[in-house]
Amino acid sequence: MADKKICRLVCTDTGTSLKPVVLTNQEAVVLGRCPVTGILDKKLSRQQVEVKADFECRVLHLKQLSSSPSLIDGSSLILKDQETTIPNGGRFQLLNNKYEYRVIFPTPPALESKPKPSPTGNSSGSTAKRAKGDITDFFQKKPTKRRISEEEPSHQEAKKKAKLDGPTKVTSKKNYRGTVSDSESEDSLDSKDLNIIQETSSKKRTQQQKDYKGAVSDSDDSDVGNKQPSTNAPGKKNSHAGVRDRDGGDTCKAENSVAARTPLNNKDFKKATSKDYKGAVSDSDDNDSDGLSGDRVLSVSKVSKAETPKVTSLKKYHGEISDSSDEDDNKQDPESSAVKAKLTALQQNAKRYLAKQSADRPETTHPDSLPLATSGTDGAANAGKQLGKPAADSKWEEQGKLVVYTSQGVQASNKIAGFDLDGTIITTKSGKVFATSADDWRIVYSEVPRTLKKLHSDGYKVVLFTNQLGIGKGKLKLADFKRKVLGVQSKIGIPMQALIATGEGVYRKPQTGMWTHLCNHGNDGIQVHTTSSKYIGDAAGRPADWGPGKKKDFSCSDRLFALNVGVSFHTPEEFFLGQKKNRFSLPEFDPRKLSSAGPLLSPPQAQIPAQGHPQEVIILVGFPASGKSSFVKKHLLPHKYVHINRDAMGTWQKCVAATESALVKGQSVVVDNTNPDPESRQRYTACAKKANVHCRCFVLNVSLDHARHNEKFRRMTDSAKNHAQISEMVFHSYKKKYTQPTPAEGFDAVVRVNFLPSFSNTKEESLYRMFLLEK
């Protein structure tokens, strides 16, 4: 266990392995491009910040040393020589959106004493703390059993806690005869099994042993459909059956496991089972490698010393403890009736306990299956296969920028296997990046048809989701592309559906319009289960040389599409060839990490209007679509500032004239233009100087990709009516011209404006927090 006298700064960046920085009380340490951090990035100053841990107040004092600003919690920017404090659990970034560290102080002695039993059975709330971790941690880090901070209890403490709190999970031991369960969840705790004993007449024993074969089994599959045989041998005097939760996704393990043991000692116990007992102690699922598709049925037995057996926790409990259902059920002796009454009571207690557990414990989701876009979907993992009627005829439908093909024989399903087309199912015969004709294609891997036929037989509906902007631009004829789709379907040999985005807008991946259309209009009303569905594509954000001679992926749109709709993601090489996962990078701007909390202005002491100045000029600086006009309307117009905007007035000359006129009248002015360079800003600082009034520069703290994201969001909502469309050229032109403003230009102060999003409804917020940019 780590020393209690240290504070740790843990790097949370994905794809990095930087060692933690260890601080002692009141020790000043300089962080930057240095051996202390192990960072070699030349963009980072050697002396970026100075940090000092204050154990008494449990805060980290941080002083900015470099002129390149650092960030606090991803938003609040600190400038050179500025000092701030960061609480335990807080985060800071040495460079904009890079090298993020989390502050971890040791738990105070008062909190390290033996914890009282909690109503939920969790120890010290550590599980909840982990659930609130940085969301990017889920994408590339697999759960381990290593504790990441001193705030988490040790394994021994967790075991003590489990005894106080009651039921938890069961982990099998290597030498435990007949047990095949093993929980890989990092929160697994040892617990006792629930065992129930039912005694009946000896003449049922023969029938019981005959039916018992195969009853205690363990069903587990993988991406290639392998089955894990049960280690239980029927007929032994002490046979222990283990039930293991299967791997429910591509990289994440099922969170809960249950081991059930059934003693069969003929000397001490007699046990009758129903005719349908086979498979009662088993996990049932099909070949779906991404979700559980069958109801779990659990039956276990044992008697505790105090006759108050504990019920093991299961995330979604579908178990039943069934009674004997043979012809002698109506002739039970008093002892059997008493046992049956106990069974019924235990069932009711189990349901109440597990309902409370599921309400108190936050669910853990696969990193690539976060539920950010669930339009028309349901996350029920344990629902069985549900299919619609086969389509009688093939048909093509065109709805604006969306074209839909449904082949004859396609059946609606609650399980969708979605695929990109180019680079995933097919590639060019010519070897060129882009097809030279409608016939320039071949199946990319020989394993593709066989794999898709297996998915079809397992109850999946196979659906193609493809961006084809060339159709909308007139570079590709729709008739030729239809011919290609029909050829691909014929080659694969199964019914399938294809959704084709022919232009920009909501249907183009990674935006979710095609998925929403499928769920709402293209699946015969059958609800899609995202936990049982998957998506495979080659635009995965992989770097150059991810494979021998492989180029960098042209975008990350397929991976982001899967993230947005909430299904597991695989590359073609992983899914068809079984290759290991490759490194990848998500976009630097992550809309899910934006917070509406925090200070609006930096430094926080900056105020609107300026204190001690009855009149002033505020000059805004920021990308198009960075939120300048919204900021003016919400925070400056209520204070009677005159709004100067070139979009409304037409030319900068008219803007300057309006500024001078307002200042003569004694009014304050806000100049709402992009103002990227000193030349454009000097026009208005001169007006302020001439009128001898206070002048401040407000810089919108919004990056290029953040502004591009805002523009995409505008185009998809009603706000597009009030704004002209902004091209990529305009964004990059601003970036090229931009020069960071300084007081030397004539400003009394330079203030940063943090972007604090607000939404009129939850639908808007869900859309905004999706990844809307392809790259």
UniProtKB/TrEMBL annotation:
One of its GO terms (cellular component) is nucleus. InterPro entries: FHA_2, HAD-like_sf, HAD-SF_hydro_IIIA, HAD_sf, P-loop_NTPase, PNK3P, PNKP, Polynucleotide_phosphatase. Residues 108-339, 354-394 are annotated as: Disordered. It comes from the Eukaryota. Keywords: DNA damage, DNA repair, Hydrolase, Nucleus. Gene3D superfamilies: 2.60.200.20, HAD superfamily/HAD-like (3.40.50.1000), P-loop containing nucleotide triphosphate hydrolases (3.40.50.300). GO terms for molecular function: ATP-dependent polydeoxyribonucleotide 5'-hydroxyl-kinase activity; double-stranded DNA binding; polynucleotide 3'-phosphatase activity. The keyword DNA repair applies. Its main location: nucleus. Residues 147-166, 242-253, 267-278 have a biased composition (Basic and acidic residues). Residues 7-76 form the PNK FHA domain. This is PNK FHA domain-containing protein. It comes from Patiria miniata (Bat star).
